[in-house]
What we know:
Elements: E1 4-11, E2 17-23, E3 26-32, E4 40-43, E5 48-51, E6 53-58, E7 80-86, E8 107-113, H1 133-142, E9 147-154, H2 156-159, H3 165-177, E10 181-185, H4 192-197, E11 204-206, H5 225-233, E12 236-238, H6 248-256, H7 270-274, H8 281-290, H9 295-300, H10 304-309, E13 326-339, E14 345-359, E15 362-364
Parallel strand pairs: 1-4, 6-7, 7-8, 8-9, 9-10, 10-11, 11-12
Antiparallel strand pairs: 1-2, 2-3, 5-13, 13-14, 14-15
The chain binds zinc ion (ZN).
Amino acid sequence: MTTSYVLQNLQFVTGELVDxxxxxxxxxxxxxxxxxxxxxxxxxxxxxxxxGWIDLHVHANNRLxxxxxxxxxxGVRQGVTTIVDAGSCGADNVSDILPVAATFKxxxxxxxxxxTIGLQRIDELxxxxxxxxxxxxxxxxxxxxxxxxLKVRMSQSVVKDSGLKPLETARQFADETKLPLMVHIGSxxxxxxxxxxxxxxxxxxxxxxxxxxxxxxDLHGKPLPSLLxxxxxxxxxxxxxxxxxxxxxxxxxxxxxxxxxxxISSDIYRDNRKNGPVYSLAHVASKFLLLGYSxxxxxxxVTVQPAKAIHQPELGQLKAGRPADLTLFxxxxxxxxxxxxxxxxxxxxxxxxxxxxxxNGELIT
Length: 365
Ligand SMILES: [Zn+2]
């Protein structure tokens, strides 16, 4: 039996109004609004559509505390069709999540933590014996369709006395596997400049708008020369909001100096989803509307750009013949207080709300 339906009167962020016909899980046709034909019709007047959102930084292993959550809770229920676990797991425990992912509606990919233990402890790089190259290579081989990069957390509480050694090792692992490296930054030591020096084209800095002392901006809010040099080399900047890593003040300075996010991600897990300040990827994205980014830039940063960062550009494409993988959302006038990771607040005038998704052809609202 074929299943087909048409989503009518949707709007792209470019302003174009379209009907999208979905048939057998594929996008059959993108027609001018009013022209799409199918027996089953759903009217989405007033709603936007984009390719399915990708959250490049989540914690999706629900067995882990505090950094864990349920896959569909931070995926399709929030309008996000693909989530990328950012190093919750290493070689020892990535099999806890990747094989079961097929039972969920949300697609799950992963940055493999270079520490074999992943986040079973949150000082996972304090003991260099947990950096096991053979275990890493074997694990990537088994899960090569799901592991899209490597994760290394370079802050004092994680590396303790290991200094830069974990990042130097991660650099070797990344070069050898040809996978992008996602680097978490936070409080030092190691000093941020020495971290930046080891990053290269296609590597991803997550938490780039954190407000900690060892961040990417000087005391006057100017981007560090080493950050500008890294951007020149093609290092990508990811938000990774989280409970402790997004500062309005820093984000405002970054905007003022023309330093825009490459990707907007949430760093969501159970506690910051339920109690804030993250709540959802849409909530994080709304903060960038408030900062003055255009809706087009913001939606690119949750679709096209993260797809490029994981070397799967097709995930960010919305066109006939592709699997029907869509996010439906709206922008509504709403006076709402938004809070950053340092407890600072701003008042938004509008919010981005997700309404539903189409995933594997199924309309989920
Ligand atoms: Zn994280």
